[in-house]
């Protein structure tokens, strides 16, 4: 078997760790009872992040080559090193997520059910 070697790109990477994520998960259950309001609030926050990423992925007309990966309590954004517009877009995404989550926290409203 002749396998081609992997081709790696030089990329700029933004690694986002959601601090306290495990504690947030643990707070959704107290004494074996699901805390609907906390669970709903956590889901809302994750949906905010997901909706921003979906917007980036649907923005196909712009050749930013931004890659988005998320796992556990981490989010990774990367863009080719020589793509200045893509790098600016990564900063814009990070700013938007931060503002949306801060606004969400201040105006936190959730209707369990």
Poorly predicted regions? none
Biggest sheet character: 3 strands, antiparallel
Could you say how many structural domains there are in total? 1
Share of helix, binned? 40-55%
**What is the topology, as strand order, of the major beta sheet?**
1-5-4
H/E series, N to C?
Answer: EHEEHEEH
Q: What is the 3D shape?
A: extended
Q: Summarize model confidence as the mean pLDDT.
A: 77
Tally of alpha and pi helices: 3
Commentary on this structure:
- The model has no long low-confidence stretch (mean pLDDT 77).
- This protein has one domain.
- With 113 residues, it is an alpha+beta fold.
- It contains 3 helices and 5 strands.
- The strands form 2 sheets. It has a 3-stranded antiparallel β-sheet with strand order 1-5-4, with helices on one face. The protein has a two-stranded antiparallel sheet with strand order 2-3.
- The N and C termini lie far apart (55 Å).
